[in-house]
């Protein structure tokens, strides 16, 4: 039986939301190099915006430079490490940027092989056969308490600590991303998003919005629009990637 080859298409949208005065989310992708990334920055005095944009720029730059690498996973891990170092070094040189960092969720693809990388609470979902699955684990205090059985999901939603991140890119000299490897099938949709989306709309609504046969840019618009309609308390970013046969 012949192996079904896939290629990828993508669209993205980012919005500052209804409450924030600036947007500290950043995103970028290169279909040519098979890399897609969303970052959600943190830090005062615009430091979050600097951290997230530095991360995206460095990861895409590294992806282009290592486009012929034999091991895409190792190349992406090196790109994440370079992004971490770029943010950390910049903060060390500028006192006003001290402590800045960013979440990161990224997708690297090579034909049907897919690697998902994440640090923090920006997420990757996969929609397959109209069923949504969260592919990443949040590095947040409340989610880790839920996984340990020390807090219920309902308690986590109400917790005043729900915004505490336990792992971030750029805040320390070294950081290790979670890495998930899987095989794509034609028709799969991958959603990379910041928590400004997932803290406003739940998974069933995300599933229903992604399950409509609309162009990818319209799917992004509907996701961001739904998060804004639900309150838009934070910056909102969605990148939708489709595996096509």
Can you put this structure into words, describing what you see?
This protein has about 240 residues and is α+β, with helices and mostly antiparallel strands. The protein has one domain (about 5-245): 4-Layer Sandwich (Phosphatase 2c, domain 1). Helices cover about 35% and strands about 30% of the residues. The chain has helices spanning about 45-65, 70-95, 140-145, 155-160, 195-200, 205-210, 215-230; strands at about 5-15, 25-30, 35-40, 100-110, 115-120, 125-130, 130-135, 180-185, 190-195, 235-245. It starts with 6 loop residues before the first strand and ends with a strand.
Quaternary structure of the protein: single chain
Give the strand content.
25-35%
Identify the strand order in the major beta sheet: 1-10-9-6-7
CATH level 4 superfamily: PPM-type phosphatase domain
Gyration radius from CA atoms, angstroms: 17 Å
Give the helices and strands as they follow along the chain: EEEHHEEEEHHEEHHHE
Point out poorly predicted stretches.
Answer: none
Query: Would you give the CATH topology?
Result: Phosphatase 2c, domain 1
Number of separate helices = 7
> What is the share of helical residues?
25-40%
Average residue-wise pLDDT: 93
Largest sheet: 5 strands, antiparallel
CATH class: Alpha Beta
**Shape summary:** globular
């Amino acid at each position: 039986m012949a192996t079904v080859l896939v290629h990828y298409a993508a669209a993205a949208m980012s919005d500052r939301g209804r409450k924030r005065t600036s947007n500290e989310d950043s995103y970028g992708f290169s279909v040519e190099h098979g890399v897609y990334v969303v970052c959600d920055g943190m830090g005062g005095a615009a430091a979050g915006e600097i951290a997230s944009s530095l991360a995206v720029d460095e990861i895409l730059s590294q992806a282009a430079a290592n486009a012929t690498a034999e091991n895409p996973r190792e190349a992406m891990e090196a790109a994440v490490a370079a992004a971490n170092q770029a943010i950390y070094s910049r903060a060390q040189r500028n006192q006003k940027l001290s402590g800045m960092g960013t979440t990161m969720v990224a997708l690297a693809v090579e034909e049907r092989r897919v690697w998902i990388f994440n640090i923090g609470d920006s997420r990757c979902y996969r929609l397959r056969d109209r069923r949504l699955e969260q592919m990443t684990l949040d590095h947040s205090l409340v989610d880790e308490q839920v996984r340990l059985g020390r807090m219920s999901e309902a308690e986590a939603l109400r917790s005043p600590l729900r915004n505490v991140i336990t792992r971030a890119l750029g805040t320390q000299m070294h950081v290790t991303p979670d890495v998930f490897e899987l095989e794509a099938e034609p028709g799969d949709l991958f959603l990379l998003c910041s928590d400004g989306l997932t803290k406003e709309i739940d998974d069933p609504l995300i599933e229903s919005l992604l399950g409509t046969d609309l162009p990818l840019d319209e799917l992004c618009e509907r996701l961001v629009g739904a998060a804004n309609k639900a309150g838009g308390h934070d910056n909102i970013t969605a990148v939708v990637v489709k595996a096509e046969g």
